[in-house]
Amino acid sequence: MKKIMDTQQIKQSIIEELGLAGLPEEKQVEVLTAMTESVLKRITVKTLESLSDEDRVEFEKLRETDDPDKIAEFLRTKISDYDAMVEGVVREFKEEIKGTIN
Known about the structure:
Elements: H1 7-18, H2 25-50, H3 53-65, H4 68-78, H5 82-101
Helix pairs in contact: 1-2, 1-5, 2-5, 3-4
């Protein structure tokens, strides 16, 4: 089973695709923190839009447990092709940023 992109993978993907490796490390951290927060918010919104009201309640309870494996398992059972959805959100975000940079 393919693992959902974690925060570190999202950051590395952003560094590589947006050419941020040349920035000083302090600036990289600042830019990546803001971008990662934005991506995670988008993933959460898309996730919540994809769940029924009942599933949203269950999802919120699972988030309180802070168990990423249980959360991922739940989302994979409730949202068709969840991993692809997450990757799509990340891809769309990077394309938006690339468009802004160019």
